[in-house]
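batch_manifest entry 22 of 60
target: ABC transporter substrate-binding protein
source organism: Streptomyces cyaneochromogenes
requested by: lab member K.T.
priority: normal
notes from requester: please return tokens only, no post-processing; we will run our own comparison against the previous entry in this batch. if the run fails, retry once and flag.
--- input ---
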Amino acid sequence: MRLPARHLLPVTAVTAASALLTGCFAGAESSTDTEADGKRIRVAMMLPPRSGLSPLSDDAFKLSRWSTAETLVKLGADGDAQPSLATEWQQSGRTWTFEIRDGVTFHDGTKLDAEAVVRSLTKAATASPKPRILDGVDLTAKAEDADTVTVTTATEDPLVPQRLSSPQLSVLAAKAYRGKTVNPVGAGTGPFELTKVGGTASATLDRYDAYWGGKAKAPGIDVTFVPDGTARAAALRSGEADIVEAIPVSQAAVLDQKLITEVPMPRTNTLYLNNGKGAFEDASLRAAAREAIDAEAIVKGVYEGRADVAEGLLGPALPWAAELRGPVTRAAKAGEPNGEAITIGTYSDRAEMPEVAATLQQQLQKAGFKVKLDVREYTNIEADALAGKFDAFILSRATVLDSGDPAAYLYSDFASNGTFNLSQFADKKVDGALRKASDTEVGDARRKAVIAAEAAVLAQDAAVPMLHERVIQGDAEGVVKAAHDPRERELVTIDTYVR
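--- output ---
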């Protein structure tokens, strides 16, 4: 099933969008494009800043993607902690000791030291609201000497290094913290210095030649925020942008396929089944719903094949999950719906969700359920979903939160006292598996415990994972080594340039 013609971009819209982007990027090359060794990189990003690029908000991920702000730790492909502004660390009970990298300067020329790290971490730990990564975490930082910082938590936490990799815990110069807001302009440590912010329209970054990791290959970055997906696709087609974020599925088919890359995201489109009351309190009907769902048809029809059919809750963005996963032994066999009436809720903020709901409605009705849909904006439906007012709820869910570890997601969604338990699910055996996954030391043992917890959840049909989403990134023909990062922490790196 192909998407209807309304999804295709009319020629007039291409022209209008191209004109819009031409205006947005006008003058980009004139910023400081006097370098002889490369072109400035023009980037079209989807979401404009929401909090003035404060690292204490989701804007932190923009600073990370532009390689301007850095953290003590970064994450490897498997989510393991690797050195960044800290070179090494060790744990002693509730306290972790970090050695700070020597020879690092902020973009204003001041030196990175332990006091600077403590200042940034303390600002984040005492912020209201706290960065997501510190929800429920009581963290204090102390400078032991000029190059050593200790981080202590209220309870022993094996994930402290991974937490410190969150872009929301970036380390900035003292100048960033003057006044009531955090201002990252000229205050980072990365290979590119943020020099100018044009409100919610644009940002300018120039190469920082004193970067501790060497000289960036590109002389700078010119960012334009373009919320309209049609306009972003047009920017790639017309050559007005070099790197384009989040191209809509509906536009990807009409672009030169050599210019787009589909990046697996740690995001799963999942049908949460209400285990607490109603039809799906019956395990056999949960099993019947699972067996009735044709996820491949949803991937082909709604996502035009640009998604991956789910084998579990964790997808290809975590390659180790498939390697460790085995067959799931289900707790119940499928029963007969016999016209059982159910209401499925979802939200309209993501364009594909209502289409997914409509397809599911057809599939479940064919299996014998009587299905009603309730589709609203997310802010108007979340409270009802959390209160268990639907028999089922469709959600595009991030399965790896800011720590790069999926245990927190599994616990919040499927523990008896989970804070995001849409399934109203409570099972002592599953609770035990989730606690083990949360408490196990980081590494192979923790990954195995996570997959065991996933299997325990799936055995009870608490939720039905349907597909794993991809984000579509556009890179113009001359772009070299743009990052394609499932966690959306990297985009333009020290090695990225335009021929």
